[in-house]
Amino acid sequence: MGYSHQGHTERTTVGTLLTCKDLHVKISCLRREIHQLQEAVVSHAVIDQAIGVVMAVGGLRPDQGIEVLTAVSRRTGIGLPTIAGLLVDWVATGRLSDDLRQALDSALTDAEPDAAERTPPVDDSPAVPRRGKLEVA
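Below the sequence we write its predicted structure tokens.
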């Protein structure tokens, strides 16, 4: 690649000349893409954390954890990243809306593993399934 200071153009690998304006537009697009990728990484981390919460509360396997999260998202009409954030916040605050709690309870009931597969919930988890219903511990 060569840059010409006089004409303020850059030759790309295919021989097209880019003006400074073109370069600024390209840089702006790349910055936007970087920002979107950074947001996706954070969102993915929160979803992974929420899967862990669901697994601990329901004594589920990882594949069941994501199924429960997806089911809660469908039942509530709330996007998966938002649901994940609310469940992660629940661990810290102990607060979960009644609608979300009911959707989570239903999804956990639907995903309940066989007794041989079930892992016990953590004693200090924010909620423990009791007779099919979630209760704050």
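Helices lie at 20-58, 62-76, 80-93, 98-111.
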